[in-house]
Amino acid sequence: MTQLDDRLVREMVQKVLEHIQTGWGPTSTSAPRVANAATTAPFAQRPPAAIGGHAPDGRWGQFSNVDAAVSAAKAAQLALMRQSMTVRKEICQTIRDICRERAEELGNLEYEETRIGHKPHKPLKMLAVANNPMGVGFIPTECFSGDHGITLEEHAPWGVLGVVTPVTHSLPTLAHNAINMIAAGNSLVCNPHPSGKRIAALGARLFNQAIQEWTGIDNLICVMVEPTLESAREIFSHPGIRLLAITGGPGVVAAALRSGKRAICAGPGNPPVVVDASADIDNAATCILEGASFDNNLLCLSEKEAFVEAAVYDQLMAALEAVGAYRLSSSQMDQLAKLCIVPGKDGEHGHANREYVGADPQVIAEMIGLRIPPACRMLFGPTDWEHPFVQVEQMMPVLPIVRCATFDECVERALQAEHGFCHTAVIHSRLVDHMTQMGKAVNTTLYVKNGPSVAGNGSGGEGYGGWSIAGATGEGIATPLTYTRVRRCAMIDNLRII
Ligand code: NAD
To answer: Is the pLDDT of residue 55 over 60?
Structure first.
C-alpha cells in the first residue's frame, strides 16, 4: 500500500513538474530530445509569417511590460538549466537553421522596416549568423590537479540578461546574442531599437515557437514589442537582471555604464585604414571597397576613413576608380558633409545625419546633383584629416581619403580618428615593421592586415565572427563565454588518480 502511494505520488509530481507552467518541458531525467533535420526543417519551411502580426503578449517572447518579460525569461532560464547540454546545443542549432532557411525573407523584412543599408546584403547577414560556429563548445572547463586534490572551474550562466540591439542590424544582433547567451545557459530580455522592433519581435517569435515546439520551453528570448528609452531604463535597473549586453552608439553605452550593473558594451567605432607606400595598391583598393561599401557602410567595423602615404596617393585614387567607386572632388566632399553630418556643439564631434545613414551612394550623390551608375557601391574623395567625414562615424558609403606625407603621419592621424574606441583598424602594407608599429599604436580590438575589415570578423579571414564587438569594455568579439561567470568546485586531498 505504502509502495503504491509512493509510486502514485512520484508520478503525480512528475506530471505537475512537466505541466505546472507554460514553457516547462520534460525534465532532464527524460531522454533528451535531439533536434535533427526532421524536427527543424519542417518549421523552417513553413510559409512566411507576416511581419505585422506578433503573438499575444506573454507568448513566444512578445512583451509590453518589462516585469512580465523578466519573470517569463527567468522561468524559461530555470527550465533551460534542467535540460541537458545537448538540448542547449540543439536550441542554438534551431536558431541557426531558421536564420539559414529564412535568410532571404527575414533579410528583406529587416530592410523593409529599417530602410537602411543595401537590401541584397541583408540576407547575407542572416547567413553569417547561421554559419557561425558559436555554441556550447566555446565554454571550457578549467582544472587544477595536485597533492591537495582537484579543483574545477566552470563557466556558469548569469540568469536573465538585459540586451539592447542597434537599428543597423536588428535581427542579426538579436539572433547571434541569443545563440551565445543560451549556449551559456542564460535567457534574455531585449529592448531593440524602435526602428527595428518589428523584425526583432518576429525573429523572437519564430525562434521561441520552434524552441517551444520540441523542448516545451517558451520565452528564452523575450523582446519588448514597443521599446522606449523608459523600457530600456527599466531593464537597466531591474533587480532580476544582473548583466547587461549592449550593442549601440556612445549614448547607450554611457547609459548602461551608469546603471550600476556590470555591462558588456559593444560600442561605436570609427575604423581608419592606412595604406603605406609598400602596399599592393590594387588589392588595397579592392579590399577597401569591399569593407567600406558592405551594407552601405552600416557595420561598426567598416573602413570609415583612409590615410594614405603621399607616394601612392594618386595611385590609390586611380585604383579605387578602377574597381568601380565614384570619385568626388574635395568641394563635393565638403558639400556632402554639410548635408550628411550634423555639426557638434561646444567643440564636441558632430554625428551622422540619420536621414542618410546607410543610404545608397546613388541617393547621396543625387543630393549634390550627381547621377552615378546604378552598380556603383561607394563614393570617395580627398579631404583633410579634420574633415567631418573623417572625424564622425558616418555609416554611409562615402569614404574620405587623406594624403599624409609619411607613414608616421598616417599612424598618428589614424590613432586620432579612432577616438580611443578600441574598435577596429586596417592596414595595407608589405612591411612587417609598419604592421607592428601601427598595431601597437592603435590598440584596437580588431586589427586587419591586407584584407577588408570584415575579414577580421570571420568573413573571409580565419576565426569566428560576431555581431557584438565589445571594444568599449574589453571582452572582444562576444562568444558564449562572454556571458558566463566563473564558479569553482574544489575536492580537497582526494580524487587525483595519478
Ligand atoms: P544607437 O546608439 O542610436 O542605438 C542603439 C540602441 O540603444 C537602440 O536600441 C536604442 O534604442 C538604444 N539607446 C540609445 N540611446 C539610449 C539611452 N540613452 N538609453 C537606453 N537605450 C538607448 O545606435 P544605432 O544607430 O542603433 O546603431 C549604430 C551604432 O551602434 C554605431 O555607433 C555602431 O558603431 C554601433 N554598433 C556597434 C557594434 C559593435 O559590435 N561594437 C555593432 C553594431 C553597432
So the answer is: yes
To the nearest 10°, report the CA torsion of 41, 43, 47, 49. -140
**181-202: average pLDDT:** 98
Give residue-wise pLDDT tens across range 81-139. Answer: 999 999 999 999 999 999 999 999 999 999 999 999 999 999 999 999 999 988 999 99
Q: Is the dihedral of CA 233, 238, 243, 245 positive or negative?
A: negative
Helices (H), 62-163: 66-81, 85-101, 103-114, 122-131
Q: Give me ligand 1 centre to Cα 253, in Å.
A: 8
Cα–chain center distance at 434: 30
User: Is the CB of residue 255 below 6 angstroms from any atom belonging to ligand 1?
Assistant: yes
Confidence tier at 347 by pLDDT (50, 70, 90): confident
CA dihedral (466, 472, 473, 475) positive or negative: positive
Distance CA 451, CA 478 (A): 22
Decide: 302 and 446 in contact? Cβ < 8 Å: no
Contacts of 497 (CB under 8 A, 6+ apart): none
Q: Which cell goes with 328?
A: 568626388
What does the alpha-carbon distance between residue 185 and residue 156 come to, in Å, rounded to a whole number? Answer: 7
Q: Which among 113, 167, 176, 233 is the best mutation to test ligand 1's pocket, defined by most ligand atoms within 8 Å of the CB? A: 167
CA-based angle 261:264:270, to the nearest 5? 130
Question: Quick one: cell of 242?
Answer: 544582473
409 membership: H or E segment, kind and range: helix 407-418
**Minimal CA–CA distance to 400: which of 465, 339, 329?**
329
Question: Which contacts of 437-442 are long-range, i.e. CB under 8 A and separated by 24 or more positions?
Answer: 437/407, 437/411, 438/274, 438/410, 438/411, 438/414, 441/411, 441/414, 441/415, 442/272, 442/411, 442/414, 442/415, 442/418
